[in-house]
Amino acid sequence: MLAVGAHPDDIEIGCGATLLTLAARPGTTVRGVVLTGSDARVQEATGALAAFVPGAALEAHAFPDGRLPAHWEAVKDVLHELATRAAPDVVLCPGPGDAHQDHRLLGQLVPTVWRDALVLHYEIPKWDADLHPPTHYVPVSPDMARRKVALLDAHYPSQHDRDWWDEELFLGLMRLRGVECKSRYAEAFSAHKVVLDLG
Predict the structure, then answer these.
(1) 8 Å CB contact between 22 and 15
(2) Does 27 reside within a domain?
(3) What is the residue range of 84's domain?
(4) What confidence score (pLDDT) does residue 36 get?
(5) Structurally, how many domains does the chain consist of?
(6) Would residue 197 count as lying in a domain?
(7) Bridge partners (DSSP) listed for residue 58
(8) What is the pLDDT of residue 199?
(9) For the segment 37-85, what is each residue's pLDDT rounded down to a tens digit?
(10) How would you classify the pairing of strands 118-122 and 90-94?
(11) Burial category of 119 from C-beta neighbours within 10 Å (exposed 0-12, middle 13-18, buried 19 and up)
(12) Which Gene3D superfamilies does this chain map to (predicted)?
């Protein structure tokens, strides 16, 4: 499994409970990559991913935050080079309809790079009110949902002063997605194309 984020914390916000659930299953390997971030933020992300998925490796790049579209060609090159080293079955990344330009670019590029993988686009709540109806759900237990929130808080102290960074938001979105799939909590994803191998 490959988890792609534009910024440190994107991966854990978007699919942290899913990663926690998968980490409990033997045989699952996860690699993470983030495209922007200061050294301090990358350190936070490295510790966070290792806490969510013990043994997971994080690869970080230093593109400027908020400016990924201006570096389209270089970002595409980074993803293609990564694809020579990583052939995941599943890729988790932001969505192509995300209002944040960095997220949106990755949501557009990732499916063009990993054409043979299942690409699931995670959602990141924000001021822009850009959440869309999802197509896929991962039910998560209350323990996993609360653990996600606790790990986010423990590993991203630089974000504590954000007005949106709180337990109510993270649990609230998971609770809403849980209602939509008859679970207490869930994380939701969208997929543009899914291939069902019935052989």
Answers:
(1) no
(2) yes
(3) 2-190
(4) 97
(5) 1
(6) no
(7) 32
(8) 85
(9) 999 999 999 999 999 999 999 999 999 999 999 999 999 999 999 999 9
(10) parallel
(11) buried
(12) LmbE-like
Total-model pTM: 0.96
d(CA 109, CA 146): 32
CATH number of the domain where residue 138 is located: 3.40.50.10320
Q: For the chain, give the mean pLDDT.
A: 96
Structure tokens at 137: 């759900």
Q: What percent of the chain has pLDDT over 70?
A: 100
AA letter at 153? D
Displacement of CA 63 from its chain's centroid (Å): 18
- Give domain status of residue 108, yes or no: yes
Per-residue pLDDT of 4-16, as tens digits, reads 999 999 999 999 9
Domain membership flag for residue 198: no
| Rounded CA separation 44/10 (Å) | 12
